[in-house]
Every structure is written in C-alpha cells, then in structure tokens.
Amino acid sequence: METHSAVLQKLRNTFRSGVTVPEKFRRSQLTQLLTLIQENEEKILGALHKDLSKPKFEAILSELEIVLNELHFALSNLRNWMQDEHVSKILATKVDECFVRREPLGVVLIIGPWNYPMHLLLLPLVGAIAAGNCVVIKPSEVTSAMEAVIAELIPKYLSPDCFTVVCGGAEETKALLKNKFDHIFYTGSQSVARSILQAAAPLLTPVTLELGGKCPCFIHERVDIIAAAHRLAWTKYFNLGQSCVAPDYVLCTKETRDLLVPALKQVLLEFYGEKPQECPDLARIVSPKHWTRIMGLLGKSKGKVVLGGESDEDSKYIAPTVLVDVPEDDSLMQEEIFGPLLPLLTVSSVDEAIDFMNNREKPLALYVFSDDSSVVNTVLKKTSSGGFCSNDGIIHMALPGLPFGGVGASGFGNYHGRWGFETFSHKRAVLLRGWALERLNGLRYPPYTDNKLSW
Ligand code: NAD
C-alpha cells in the first residue's frame, strides 16, 4: 500500500508534467465524471439509501442532478473561463500586455461531509478539475456505502495519475493533513474546521471552509400561510433536516405562529401521511451517535412539542417535529440542530427579528417569507449571511451562477459554477513588456532630479 506522501508525490509529478493544464484534458475528465454518474445511477442511489435511507426523489435531485448540472455548466463555459482577462492600463503601461491568467493551484485536497456525501464531494471536484488541478478526494467515513462507491468508481473513470481517493476518518485525515497541499477545500462542522486550520497553518496552506450554523427563517404576517408551510416543511424535512442550508429555526409574531402551526400540521399530513415513520419519503438520521445528539437536544428543550416528537432508536427515526414557546437560551438554540426539529420563536416586529438574527453568528443562509417586498428588502439590507432567499429555502444553492459559501462563522470562500473554477485557480498578474520606449523609461532611473517629478 502506497503511503500518503508517495501518493502525493505521484500527483505532484503528474501536475508538474503539465498534463492537467490543456482544455482538452480538463474537458475529458469532466466528461468522464459525467459518464461515471450516468452509468452508475443505481449503484449510487443504492448507497445513499443504505447510508441515509434517502428517498430516491431527494437523492436524484440533490445528489445526481445538481452534480450533472454543474458538469454541463462547466463544460459549456470552460473555454470562456480559461481566457486571459485583459485589464485597463495606465500611461506607463500603454504599450504592454496586461492581463490576469487563471492557473491551476497544483495538488488540492477536498474533504467531504456525510449529509450529501456525493454532491458535496463531487461539486467542488468539478471546479478543481475545470481549473486544471490534481486532486486528493476524501469522502466522509460516516456514510460508508457511499465512501466505498466513490473509492471504487473514481479510479475507474478519472485518471489515477491525477485523482486519488483516500478513505478513513479523523485519524486518516489528520495524517493526510501533515502533507503539503496547494489548497484544502473542507466542508463540515465548525469544530473540525478549527483542526483543519491548525493543520494548514504551519504549511501556510490556503483553505476554503464550507461550514454550517443556524439558518434563520423570518415569516412575516403578510404571507400565504399554506404556501409558506409547504415551502418551509419541504426545505426543513428534506434529508430529515440534515442540510447545512435547512431553516434551523423560525421567527414570527405570536399571531403568525398560531396560523403556522395548523398549516404545518396540514402540510405534514399531506407530505408524509398519518404514519410518517412508514413513509418512504423521509430519510433517516445518519448514525446512532447523531440520533442520540438530536434526541439529547430535544430532551433538554424547554419548548413545547406541538407536532411530531416521536422517535425510534433502532431505525434512527425522528418524526418531523415542531416546537413552540422555545426560550432564546434553549438547548435547541445553542448549536445547529441538523435534524428534523423546528423551533418557532416569537418576535413582535421585523426589527426585533433583524436584531435577533444580527445578535448571532452570521448564518450560511437566511430566509424571509413575506408578500411585502419592502420587508424582504429591509431584511436583505440589514442582515448578513452566506446566501439569501425570499419565500423559499435551499433553492438558491441550485443555481450555478450564484456563489455558494458562508460568511463569518459559516465559512469563507465559495464555489459553484465559475466561482468554483476561481476558487481552484491562482489569478496570476501578468505584464508582458518589450524593449520599446526606453527613453521614456529613463524618466524613472536615478539620478532623481526635480524635473523628473514635474514631468
Ligand atoms: P465533520 O466535520 O464531522 O466531518 C467532515 C469531514 O471531516 C469528514 O470527511 C471527516 O472524516 C473529517 N473529519 C472529522 N473529524 C476530523 C478531524 N478531527 N480532523 C480532520 N478531519 C476530520 O462534519 P460532518 O458531521 O460530516 O458534517 C456536518 C456539518 O457540516 C454541519 O455543521 C453542516 O452544517 C456542515 N455542512 C456544511 C455544508 C456547506 O456547504 N457549507 C454542507 C454540508 C454540511
């Protein structure tokens, strides 16, 4: 078995050979990734079902289609992205060629989480390949079926000289991080992100951190409450709440809350029927450890469960749950819930909701539901978050034209579409000068006489 440093040396040698740089090579690998997904759909869906009981519809939408769209977008735009970008000149550079050249960074590391174990590993990979890098791919060990599929398929479809998969958990990742990379792209929790930064610091390795946090959703009184309940419930209970951009908690007035609870009750019945535990359209919590953590938060909560609340440890099931009368210092408000528990907190006004959100860490996404565009614009103007979406959730991340990433504690750096290509490219400042106009150049050479400044 090759050691990490031997594998990395092989990738570094490949990178230095320049093989990954031509557009033709990048295009061929992106096309191979496309083929990998198309030829192995059943295998991928099977693994996602084994790991998370992902409903087929959700898996196709959020793991397959999103990566396929990203690949098509990259293939359509690659030539354009790779062009040198000419910049405006100053008098002293009038006859020079001045441009920005996007160059690959080298050998990069992509570390993925378990909640969308294919999407969150392969979407950054699209950007890294498009930008011409060699890549070490580290899937999450928590979703072991998907980890095995990635380890099996990547070497079959992508060039093994340029792309390699390293499996394992925290210890293997720590060992991997002792090596020098040209960039680390990490998606996962804030606590592990600190270890990643510490490991990167001695080697001054640049890092992108795609983290989580508590994404708020403010629901204004001027709203179609049934439509709002549909959109809120779908975005919250998709993947059983294990989405980094899921609404973590709702802020609304007491009056809106009293309309929202029955609306959510109706919608949950429509979505998942009388016996949600038997409904195939609900995923499961990824592991007993995560199930225990979420149930611990619920057990300690001072909030009142008004919908759901049932659970089953053996099948890692937790019902879509709604809580009211949740105090600000509640267990559910201390950390990202990352599960199907939805606390509804009451505020008296838009301004109070804005203050509430601004008194906390900047979230990865922030949602506002209102018929009144001035309310939407006020919240947009007065808050900060990685992404923003009005009258829906999650959906903004499906657009390759929008950058996806956090701000503050929800992470730094971004990707998707051109933004991913940029993240994995060095923007090299180039000035090509010839030998003309040497007399003009002479104006800057010593001796620095006064008349040279007055020129
Ligand atoms: P995690 O941080 O536990 O694990 C992510 C990766 O880090 C895995 O590959 C794991 O093997 C590795 N890892 C774990 N411990 C490590 C250590 N001590 N040192 C080095 N590597 C280590 O995260 P997770 O539980 O898989 O994911 C959940 C979190 O990720 C949530 O907070 C969620 O909000 C966040 N998330 C963010 C995004 C985003 O795009 N911003 C997307 C999905 C999930």
UniProtKB/TrEMBL annotation:
<dbReference type="Pfam" id="PF00171">
    <property type="entry name" value="Aldedh"/>
</dbReference>
<dbReference type="GO" id="GO:0005737">
    <property type="term" value="C:cytoplasm"/>
</dbReference>
<feature type="active site">
    <location>
        <position position="244"/>
    </location>
</feature>
<dbReference type="InterPro" id="IPR015590">
    <property type="entry name" value="Aldehyde_DH_dom"/>
</dbReference>
<dbReference type="InterPro" id="IPR016161">
    <property type="entry name" value="Ald_DH/histidinol_DH"/>
</dbReference>
<dbReference type="GO" id="GO:0004029">
    <property type="term" value="F:aldehyde dehydrogenase (NAD+) activity"/>
</dbReference>
<dbReference type="GO" id="GO:0004028">
    <property type="term" value="F:3-chloroallyl aldehyde dehydrogenase activity"/>
</dbReference>
<dbReference type="InterPro" id="IPR016162">
    <property type="entry name" value="Ald_DH_N"/>
</dbReference>
<protein>
    <recommendedName>
        <fullName>Aldehyde dehydrogenase</fullName>
    </recommendedName>
</protein>
<feature type="active site">
    <location>
        <position position="210"/>
    </location>
</feature>
<dbReference type="GO" id="GO:0006081">
    <property type="term" value="P:aldehyde metabolic process"/>
</dbReference>
<dbReference type="InterPro" id="IPR012394">
    <property type="entry name" value="Aldehyde_DH_NAD(P)"/>
</dbReference>
<feature type="domain" description="Aldehyde dehydrogenase">
    <location>
        <begin position="12"/>
        <end position="429"/>
    </location>
</feature>
<keyword id="KW-0560">Oxidoreductase</keyword>
<comment type="similarity">
    <text>Belongs to the aldehyde dehydrogenase family.</text>
</comment>
<dbReference type="InterPro" id="IPR016163">
    <property type="entry name" value="Ald_DH_C"/>
</dbReference>
<keyword id="KW-0520">NAD</keyword>
